[in-house]
Design brief:
The protein has 238 residues and is an all-alpha fold. The chain folds into 2 domains: 179 residues, no CATH class; 53 residues. The protein is built from 13 helices and no strands. Helix 8 packs antiparallel against helix 9. It is globular and about 60 Å long. It is a multi-pass membrane protein. InterPro entries: Brnchd-chn_aa_trnsp_permease. It is found in: Cell membrane.
């Protein structure tokens, strides 16, 4: 089916993102519950969620705050966990980098795992999209996620400890990443990067303040880049 206007691509992005509501809802609710248990009031919880808007980084910072870790370490750890977003931005720059400054600011705020995963696959498979169409699709992928995230955070903060552990809300994070990573493992280099990062993450799990994730991410990027280089070199030699 052909989409000829930015509005059409916005709707397509929103439709593609609908399944992620099943993850964003429980994940947002989980953060709201944890924030309440940590002593944050409703305003603080919602402000935290609106200004950071990065689930994994929010949970990391919240956990460290409850452990009375120094503020500088909390900030560094949260930024480290969210370092992947810098890689997302670099990957999206060839497709969205020529947008206006207000559009780039909005895109930067909305760059999360779901919007990136959906958009980069769409942009790479449909090279005929114009800049307005790409921007519309990217923003569209956030249309169902943003209200779900804030609404679920609010609900979790209001309910607080009344949410039973049997609901298993903590399933949302690993399920989200598995759903996003799977379709992106399209080449041997991608698989090498994912495999190395998983192994290193397990080996580095004991490093304090979740810094093992950064070590794993860097190891995965280096391994993936090296694998791609060797594959291309072998192709050229044939």
């Amino acid at each position: 089916m052909s989409f000829s206007t930015p509005k059409s691509f916005f709707r397509r992005g929103a439709r593609d993102a609908i399944p992620f509501i099943l993850v964003a809802g429980p994940f947002g609710m989980l953060f709201g519950v944890f924030a309440t248990e940590a002593g944050l009031d409703l305003l603080q919880t919602m402000t935290f969620s609106a200004t950071v808007f990065a689930g994994a980084a929010q949970l990391t910072a919240l956990q460290l705050m409850t452990e009375q870790v120094p503020t500088l370490i909390v900030l560094i750890s949260a930024l480290a966990v969210n370092l992947r977003v810098a890689m997302y931005s670099a990957s999206l720059t060839p497709y969205l980098g020529q947008a206006t400054l207000p559009q780039r600011i909005l895109a930067a705020y909305l760059t999360v795992d779901q919007s990136y995963a959906l958009s980069i696959i769409r942009f790479e498979t449909d090279r005929s999209m114009s800049l307005p169409e790409r921007m519309a699709y990217f923003i569209g992928t956030s249309a169902p996620i943003v209200p779900t995230w804030f609404g679920a955070t609010y609900l979790g903060a209001v309910l607080g400890n009344r949410v039973p552990e049997s609901m298993g809300l903590d399933f949302a994070l690993p399920i989200a990443f598995l759903a996003m990573i799977g379709p992106m493992l399209r080449t041997p280099a991608h698989m090498v990067a994912a495999g190395v990062s998983c192994v290193v993450a397990l080996m580095a799990a004991g490093i304090p303040y979740n810094l093992g994730l950064i070590v794993a991410g860097l190891a995965g990027m280096i391994a993936g880049a090296q694998a791609e280089y060797l594959i291309e070199k072998r192709k050229a030699a044939v």
